[in-house]
Design brief:
By secondary structure, the chain is mainly α. The protein has 21 helices and no strands.
Length: about 575
């Protein structure tokens, strides 16, 4: 019996149960989107919790970039997996991973463990997005997906608003660890709801296991549950046990180590988890093999190298991290390897026929939207600190004027798709955003203090960017084969996230060059001249972001309005 059949349910009128499932999935996306930003205010306390001082901020960068790494790198793999098994099952397991990563992060007392927890969180959180977008395509036919896509896009962006606020609220009453315990609890609740709502839904072609393999797999699941419990106990290390003469020795780290996992009990737990992986292989390996695990490894490795190169760099001094010198050549080799794999594999990770029609244009627009979005998110607080306030909180509230408009724009964009094609929703929105961001490039001292004008410009920029998000997803899903909605959604998300990582790095490089040029003009630098040069750097980034938005508008106008029938006649770029 073949194990690589895809799940392509016929689109019919959504039932109350399926609507409830989609709403729950959207809440899960909101939870994980908020977690992307929740550490903004908690980072200093998290550093202290793993033994880092405030002067070691660069060492703490992986706490943030680790989540981003997990979020982006495995998106194509999870997206493709959701095309082979039920979306509900992928949503469920992504929530399990997110919850486990939250528990590991909450218990961490050293940097490698907290980074590991954040990576696991990112994998689970990132996988929820393409599975949810693909679920929209499963439940609704072409032409009726706009509102649902707009809602999913809106909740993603609402996370940027409520994440820092949630972090601040929790920190006002508890420690930073409570943030992640709350994450874990919410993940459990949402997973239970999805499991209940998903009962009876198609799960793909069942695997036929012999009696012996079935029993071995069951033993593996038991080992996995025990291993998880033992690892959690090792990380928790309750004082009642560690201080006990009888039960304490297994918690003592091996000589020369301080990590709670480098202990006898930690090794016992990790050993049980290794047993779980081996014993349950007959269950998960056939599915993973059908996903094209070799191609997934090549593409995941390439994305991971790019993310680590740019996300771990000190943006105030460098464009890419020191490791980028060797990571970028490795990225090139891996990408060439993936292209060869795509052309030669019987069933490649990105199904042939996906990169046709409006999909490539949608990916490019998504990349540019990500660049424009993150430029405003990063640089507005910087500009506020340079020109109007020394308060980080006040600067964050200035940014809030922009952030609240993005989800509103995303929802309106979805509503407009009912009557207008994606090109004529996305393009005007991006023109508005590009124009507003270019206006920001002329802001100097006092501009942000003009509450009415600055708020209006920030709202227009956020609303315009939000308008483009749902149309991009709609165009890509409309032209992708029904059997590849998951991987297509993943690629759109990857495009936007890579725009946020790589696009910002490129704009920052130009900005740093302008900063250096301005400083060289000054014989005797002082605090004011440094601030003035910093403002020039911010303006430079805004000019680049505004141009990116306008270029995206032109691409959207000319390419996102093409008909599905015409799009089908375009060859896969990787096959030509």
């Amino acid at each position: 019996m073949s194990t690589d059949a895809t799940v392509t349910p016929a689109v019919s009128e959504p039932t109350p149960r399926s609507k409830a499932l989609l709403a729950t999935a959207a809440l899960a996306v909101l939870l994980t989107a908020a977690d992307t930003y929740v550490v903004v205010l908690a980072l200093e306390e998290m550093m202290s919790g793993v033994g880092l001082g405030i002067d070691q901020l660069q060492r703490a960068a992986p706490i943030v970039s680790g989540f981003l790494l997990g979020y982006i790198a495995v998106l194509p793999l999870i997206g493709r997996l959701s095309d082979l098994v039920s979306r509900q099952r992928v949503l469920l397991w992504c929530l399990v991973l997110f919850g486990l990563g939250s528990v590991v992060t909450a218990l961490a007392v050293d940097l490698p463990v907290i980074v590991g927890g954040r990576v696991i969180q990112g994998i689970g959180g990132g996988g929820l997005v393409p599975a949810t977008l693909a679920l929209v395509a499963d439940l609704l036919p072409r032409g009726r997906r706009g509102v649902a896509l707009g809602m999913v896009s809106a909740v993603q962006e609402i996370g940027a608003v409520i994440g820092p606020l949630l972090g601040a609220a929790v920190l006002a009453f508890w420690s930073w660890r409570a943030i992640f315990w709350l994450n874990a609890g919410a993940a459990v609740v949402l997973a239970v709801v999805i499991a209940v709502l998903g009962r009876g839904a198609p799960t793909g072609e069942p695997l036929r296991l012999g009696a012996r393999s079935t029993w071995v797999a069951r033993i593996g699941w038991i080992a996995g549950a025990l291993g998880t419990a033992v690892v959690v106990l090792a990380l928790w290390a309750p004082e009642r046990l560690t201080s006990n003469v009888t039960y304490g020795p297994p918690f003592v780290p091996y000589e020369g180590n301080t990590s709670r996992l480098i202990t006898p009990i930690g090794f016992w737990g990790l050993g049980l988890l290794a047993g779980f992986v081996v014993l349950t292989a007959p269950v998960w390996w056939p599915r993973l093999r059908a996903v094209d695990v070799f191609g997934a490894a090549l593409l995941t490795g390439a994305l991971a190298c790019v993310v680590w190169t740019f996300a771990t760099a000190d943006s105030s001094k460098q464009v890419m991290s020191d490791s980028g010198v060797w990571l970028l050549p490795v990225t090139g080799v891996l990408l060439v390897g993936y292209v060869v794999r795509h052309l030669t594999a019987k069933q490649p990770l990105i199904e042939r026929g996906v990169l046709t029609g409006r999909v490539p244009a949608a990916l490019l627009v998504s990349f540019l939207v990500g660049t424009a979005l993150v430029a405003v998110v990063v640089e507005i607080p910087v500009l506020a600190r340079l020109t109007m306030t020394n308060s980080q909180t006040t600067a964050a509230f200035v940014l809030l004027r922009f952030l609240v408009a993005v989800p509103i724009g995303a929802l309106v964009g979805g509503l407009l798709l009912r009557r207008i094609g994606p090109a004529f929703v996305a393009a005007p929105g991006l023109v508005l955003a590009g124009g507003a961001i270019l206006v920001m490039s002329g802001w100097r001292s006092g501009a942000l203090s003009d509450l009415v004008i600055s708020t209006l410009v920030l709202l227009v920029a956020g609303f315009g960017i939000g308008l483009a998000i749902a149309p991009v997803n709609d165009a890509a899903l409309a032209d992708a084969p029904e059997s590849a909605h998951g991987v297509t959604s993943a690629l759109v998300v990857v495009g936007r996230m890579m725009g946020m990582v790589v696009g910002l790095a490129l704009l920052t490089a130009v900005g740093l060059h302008r900063f250096s040029t301005e400083m060289q003009k000054v014989d005797r630098p002082n605090a004011q001249t440094v601030r003035d040069a910093g403002v020039v750097q911010v303006h430079t980034v805004f000019i680049g972001a505004g141009v990116a938005a306008l270029v995206a508008a032109a691409i959207a106008l000319f390419f996102l309005g093409r008909s599905v029938i015409a799009a089908r006649d375009v060859a896969d770029p990787l096959e030509s």
